[in-house]
């Protein structure tokens, strides 16, 4: 199933706009435009400034990405020599940054680039690392890449290094039937909420600032010198935790941890556990919690601060999560993705 269509794009620089990434097969045209040879695809100008070119593309619907097909048809002396693809599942559909359709020969303005930077797309998941492309001759134009760990995304970022052209980008995936983002929860218990309550962690709206997140006090028993273990984690001298009751019973299949605004006070790591329980009072030390996100290093001030995607999907329904941070600090939001599953 072709689960993605080019709905909008933000091209860094272009001869031919990225919105020409269409379903029809590329065609050859002998004509020239005022900017150069007419090409059926996205072509950027020859790079004479620092950086590389990129485009952000909104999928028609969120879907579980399975494979990426690139076609460099007819781009024989001007194809992009390398590319990579990043992706994200954005909770709030961003407003259009620019109308790139039929604006050949223009580049993104500084204002448009600043709006694009707000998406922090350079931090999105890398689903295809930097990979070489071949020329657009008939025998070398087709490129097919399977995605090793399919996940649900709403937007992709196509990077080309450093410039050049691509005739077609086709994104294949399957609909995420029944998958939902849990937006309501109740805080059952927590260890510390000195600066902000964990009650807001599953809020749908983006965090407005550090005041709009869960933040604990600093550990008073912290050592005089911080040491790291062999895995790069801070050697534990304590932790903080919060237990949240979810709005419904779900099987969790993905988690995002938002550290936006928390720059000098981001936790070193986070761990998330889950369970199904109807008890009014739950204990953090209960050994019946199952791990859905093993202890994972965090990066400060990111829409998804997880340094690795190692979520363990739950095969049985759960209705509570326990968030543990080490040693202390703050989180803006936690996004729990799940679907209904049978008891």
Automatic annotation (TrEMBL):
Q: Which residues form the Allantoicase domain?
A: 25-174, 185-339
Chain intervals for the UniProt region annotation (Disordered) = 1-29
In which domain of life is the source organism classified?
A: Eukaryota
Composition skew (Basic and acidic residues), residue ranges: 1-23
InterPro entries assigned:
Allantoicase, Allantoicase_dom, Galactose-bd-like_sf
Family designation: Belongs to the allantoicase family.
Question: What is the name listed in the Swiss-Prot or TrEMBL entry for this protein?
Answer: Allantoate amidinohydrolase
Organism, per UniProt?
Answer: Trichogramma kaykai
């Amino acid at each position: 199933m072709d689960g993605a269509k080019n709905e909008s794009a933000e091209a860094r620089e272009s001869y031919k706009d990225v919105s020409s990434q269409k379903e029809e097969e590329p065609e050859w045209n002998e004509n020239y435009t005022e900017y150069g040879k007419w090409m059926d695809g996205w072509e950027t100008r020859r790079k004479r400034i620092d950086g590389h070119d990129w485009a952000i593309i909104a999928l028609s619907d969120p879907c579980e990405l399975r494979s990426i097909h690139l076609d460099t048809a007819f781009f024989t002396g001007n194809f992009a020599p390398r590319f990579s693809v990043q992706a994200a599942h954005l909770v709030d559909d961003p407003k259009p940054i620019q109308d790139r359709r039929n604006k050949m020969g223009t580049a993104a303005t500084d204002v448009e680039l600043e709006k694009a930077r707000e998406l922090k797309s350079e931090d999105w998941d890398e689903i295809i690392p930097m990979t070489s492309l071949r020329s657009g001759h008939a025998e070398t134009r087709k490129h097919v890449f399977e995605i090793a760990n399919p996940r649900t995304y709403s937007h992709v970022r196509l990077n080309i290094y450093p410039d050049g052209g691509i005739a077609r980008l086709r994104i294949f995936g399957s609909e995420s039937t029944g998958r939902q983002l849990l937006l309501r929860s109740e805080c059952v218990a927590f260890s510390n909420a000195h600066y902000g309550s964990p009650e807001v962690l599953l809020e749908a709206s983006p965090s407005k600032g550090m005041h709009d997140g869960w933040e604990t006090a600093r550990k008073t028993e912290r050592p005089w010198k911080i040491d790291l273990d062999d895995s790069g984690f801070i050697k534990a001298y304590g932790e903080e935790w919060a237990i949240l009751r979810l709005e419904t019973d779900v099987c969790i299949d993905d988690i995002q941890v938002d550290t936006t605004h928390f720059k000098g006070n981001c936790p070193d790591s986070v761990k998330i556990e889950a369970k199904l329980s109807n008890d009014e009072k739950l204990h953090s030390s209960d050994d019946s919690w199952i791990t859905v996100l093993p202890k994972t290093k965090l990066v400060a001030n990111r829409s998804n601060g997880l340094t690795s995607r190692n979520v363990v999907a739950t095969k049985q329904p759960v209705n509570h999560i326990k968030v543990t941070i080490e040693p202390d600090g703050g989180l803006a939001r936690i996004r729990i993705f799940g679907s209904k599953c049978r008891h």
